[in-house]
Every structure is written in structure tokens, then in C-alpha cells.
């Protein structure tokens, strides 16, 4: 990513992926401080962010989070989000597992996410509480 992304604590996700959409709801429910905001890769904002961090918006292979001005993808992104949720700080311990091992597990799930969990025909429509935290 050239330069810093202007927004922080933004989670980029595949809006047609059932698993990814459940991840967003999981985070939103536990993020009591409403720290994280969300953008679907299918939105104009999400596509710009994806391109900035090197993700193909037409064929996404990872979610991402901008945290502390830095883009984190794959297992680093998931663990960064989890470890910043209240009560989930213990997730930091998984950073001790070598990244290639963590990312191999992440890639296996990501590659098969539509087949295992399903796919929506269009991006999810968030409820009113979540809508205020969605960047489009």
C-alpha cells in the first residue's frame, strides 16, 4: 500500500461470501466500543481499498483489516481483529505460530469458502445498527 490509508480499523470483506458476512456480524456483536468499521469488496470504497492493499476485487482471496495505519491480510488480519475485541486478547498467542502455517490454514478455508459455506447472489444488507458502521 503506497502511503497510509486515510481510515483506520476498517475491515474489508467479501460481501457475497456467507462465511465472511458471518465474520462481520461476529465482530460487530463483540466490538462493544464500535471500533471497527466494515466495507464490502464489492462496494466502490471496498474496491479502492482492495486495490490499494494488493487484493483483486474481482477475485478476492483474503479479507483485510487496516489497523494502526497498516494493512493486515490472511491470518494476520483475522488475528489482529480478534485480539482487539474485548475478551479476545488471548488470540495474540496464535501469532507465535509461524505465519506460513497460519496462512496455510487460512488459505484452505478461503479457497473453499463458497463451496463449504455458500454464496449470496448479492452483498448482504446490514441491519440498521450495522449500517452505521459500513463504509461504501
Question: Percentage of helical residues?
Answer: 40-55%
Strand content: 5-15%
Protein structure class: alpha+beta
Number of domains: 1
Which residues sit in consecutive blocks of at least 5 with pLDDT less than 50? Answer: none
Entry summary:
This protein is 40% helix and 12% strand. By secondary structure, the protein is of the alpha+beta class. It has one domain (10-118).
Task: Provide an overview of this structure.
- With 136 residues, the protein is of the alpha+beta class.
- It has one domain (10-118).
- The chain has five helices and four strands.
- It has a four-stranded mixed β-sheet, sandwiched between helices.
- Helix 1 links the parallel strand 1 (10-13) and strand 2 (37-40).
- It is globular and about 35 Å long.
Question: What descriptive keywords fit this protein?
Answer:
single chain, 136 residues, alpha+beta, 4-stranded mixed sheet, 4 strands
Strands, helices and their partners?
Blueprint: E1 10-13, H1 18-30, E2 37-40, H2 44-52, E3 64-67, E4 70-73, H3 74-83, H4 99-117, H5 128-131
Parallel strand pairs: 1-2
Antiparallel strand pairs: 1-3, 3-4
Amino acid at each position: 500500500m503506497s502511503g497510509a490509508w486515510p481510515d483506520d480499523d476498517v475491515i474489508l470483506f467479501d460481501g457475497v461470501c456467507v462465511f465472511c458476512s458471518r465474520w462481520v456480524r461476529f465482530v460487530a456483536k463483540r466490538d462493544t466500543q464500535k471500533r471497527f468499521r466494515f466495507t464490502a469488496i464489492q462496494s466502490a470504497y471496498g474496491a479502492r481499498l482492495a486495490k490499494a492493499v494488493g487484493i483483486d476485487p474481482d477475485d478476492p482471496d483474503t479479507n483485510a483489516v487496516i489497523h494502526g495505519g497498516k494493512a493486515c491480510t490472511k491470518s494476520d488480519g483475522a488475528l489482529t481483529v480478534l485480539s482487539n475485541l474485548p475478551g479476545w486478547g488471548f488470540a495474540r498467542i496464535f501469532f507465535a505460530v509461524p505465519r506460513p502455517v497460519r496462512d496455510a490454514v487460512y488459505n484452505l478455508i478461503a479457497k473453499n469458502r463458497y463451496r463449504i459455506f455458500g454464496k449470496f447472489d448479492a452483498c448482504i444488507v446490514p441491519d440498521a445498527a450495522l449500517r452505521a458502521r459500513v463504509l461504501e
